Amino acid sequence: MKALNEAFDQALREAIKDIRQEAAKLGTEPREADLRAVAEGRRDSLLDGSASAVEYRRTARRVPARAADAPAKAVLRGLVLLACLLTVVVACYLFGRITTEAPFLGLSSGPLGNAAIALLVLLALGVVVFLIGLVLVPVSTFEPLLPGDAEKRNQPAPRLLPNEAYLAAAGVVGGIVTLGLPILVQAAFDSWAVAAPALLVSAAVWSLAFTRDIRDWWLAWSHPITVARDKGRLKRLTKELPADLAEPIKQVLRSEVRAAVARAYSTRMSVQATASLRRVRGPSLHVSTPAERRLAIVSEGMADGTIALSGPRGVGKTELLRTFCAGKGLLSVVVVAPVNYDRREFVLHLFAEVCKRVAKDGPRWLRRQARQQLRQIWYLQSQSFDAKLTVPAVQLSLGGVRSRSRQPLTYPEIVHEFTSFLAGVSRSLGDARRLVIGIDELDRIHPPAEAQTFFNEIKVLFDVPGCLFVMSVSDEALRAADLAPVGGRTAFDSAIDEVVRVEPLDQEHAHRLLAARVIGLPMAFTALFNALARGIPRDLLRIARAAILFTDHADDDQDSTGEDGKNEARTVSEDLRMTAVRLVNRELARIITSADVPLPPEAARLAENGITPGGDELAALIEQVMEVDADLGTRFLFLDTVLAFFAALTTPTLVGKAEEDGAFSRLASAGALVGTRNEEARKELEEIRRWPAADVR
Description:
By secondary structure, this protein is of the alpha/beta class. The chain is about 60% helix and about 10% strand.
C-alpha cells in the first residue's frame, strides 16, 4: 500500500537521523545506507508489529481503491459494470421482442415497452430479495476499535447493513439473467449455437462481479456511511503511522549499531539516557529466550490440552504468553485471571472475549454465530407476540398473546454452550489455524489454595478437542502440586499437561534486552544490573532506569535544554565502582526499611548513611543479621558479594575474563536462589567470592 510505505519511509528517515546523532556522541558514525538496509530488511516484521499498521491494512481492505491508485482495477470495475448492465438490458430487450405478439401483464406496448416492464420487474425483485435478506440476516453491531478508541468502548457500536442482503439481491438478479439469457437468445434466434456462448459470457461476467476487488467496490454503494468512516480512519492512521513506527525502527537500529561496535569492556559508563528505557514492553523490544523456544517445541507437539508457564514474578511470563498468542497461524485470546474470582462471571467474560475474536477474525461462516452468542451473553432477551383477528360481519373475534423471556443461563449451561462453541470453532479452523486461549496472572490469586479452587472449577473447559490453553502459574502453586502426597493428584496436577519453566535471564539475554534500549552500555554494567535484578527482566529495567535515567549529568554545568528549546537526552557518565555502590545502597535501604524483624542499630545507620566506596560496613553486619534472620543475612551476603565483585573489576581484561568464565551469569543465578533456597545461595556466593581472576574479599 502506497500510504503505508510512505509512512514507513518517513519514520525511517526520522529514526536514522536520531540514531546517527546518538551514535555520534558515542564516537561512532554508522553509514546511512547501512542503517537503511537493516531497517528495509525488517520492514515486514516492523509493519506486522505495529498496531496502527495492522489496523490500517485491515481498514484499507474495506475501502475501494481509487482510480488514481489502481487504474487497472478501475478499468476492470468499469468494464464489469458495463458488461453486467448490457446483459440485463439485452435480456430485457429480448424478452420484450419475444412477448410482443402476446401482451405482457395485460399490456401491449411493443418490444421496448415490454422490455421496460421486464426491467422494472427485475429491479423490483432485487429490492424485495434485499429487504428479505435484511430481515433474515441480523444487523451487525460489531466493529473493531483502535487502541486509541477507548472513549468509544462504552458507546453503542454503529449499525452496519449486512453484506449478505446485498449479495443475495445481486445474486438473484445475476442468476436470473445468466439462466434466462440463453433461453431468450434461443427463442429469438432459434439457435442453441448462439445461446451457448451467451450463457458462457453472462456467467463469466457475473462471476467476475463477485470477485474480491469488484465485490468490495460494489458493496461500498450499500455502505456509504461505513466507507466514509473508514476513509476518515485511514486519514487519521496515516498521520499516526510515522510516530508509531519511528520508535520500533530505532530499537532495531540501536541493536545494529550496538552489534557493529566491538563489545565494550570498559569500566566506565558513558551512555545516553534514551526514552526507550521508559518503555517496559512492546513487540519491537521483545527478546527471544530459551523458554520461548521450549514453548514453541512443546506446543507443536500438542493439538490441544493445557500448558503452564511457571517462574518467579517479573521473569517474563506475561510477555512470553502474549508473544506466543500473537504468533502467526493462531486464533488466540488472552484474558487476565481475577484476584477475587467468580466462576460464572469469569467463564462468561472468557466466552465473550472468544466470541469477539471469532466475530472479528474467525471463519466467515462462524462470525454470525459468534455475534449471536455475544448478544446472548450481553443481554437478557425478551420477546412478545400479539395477534388478533376480527370479522365484523359475523361478530367473531379471535386473538392470542404469547410472551417469552430468556432467563440467565446456569453455570453448567454456560460451560456446555462455551465448550460446544469452542469445539465448533476448532473444527472450522482445521489445520490452517489453531485455537489458543491464554490465561494470564494466575499467580495473582492468593492464597495458592484459592488458585487450586479456581482450577477445579474451570478445568472442565480444558477438554475441548483442538483448543490449546496456555496459562501462567505461580511457583508456589506448582510447588504445592509437586509436594502432594504420593498417589494423590492436586488440581494443577490433573489439569496441566505440560509445564514450561521461564528461567531468569543470563548475561547474554540481559545484554540483548538492554542493547535494544541503550547504545554503548558496557558489558560490566549490564552484568551489574542483571545481578542486582537476579535475572528478572522487570527488575533489570527498573535498576537500569535507576542507574541511567536518574544519574546526574556528566557535566554538572550542562543544560538539558538545546538551542531549539527542546529537552535533549542526558549523557550519563560514571565509574563501575561508584555505580555499584550507589545501586547497592539503594537496594540495601529498601531491604532494611521493609524488614519486619529487629536488626542491629548499625543496620539502620547503614541504611541512612550508605556504604562508603572501599568500606567494609556491610561485611561486618552479615554475621549479626544472619543470627537474627537467615533470609535477610543471605540478602546482605549477596549485596556484599556484588559490591566486592564489581569493585574488583578494575580493568577491561578482568571484565573479559569474568564474561569468559561465566561469572556474571553465575552471580545472577545465585541471586535468584536468595529467599527460596538460601543454603544453596550461600554456597554459590562463597564460590564466587573465591573467583580467581579478582580479589573478592
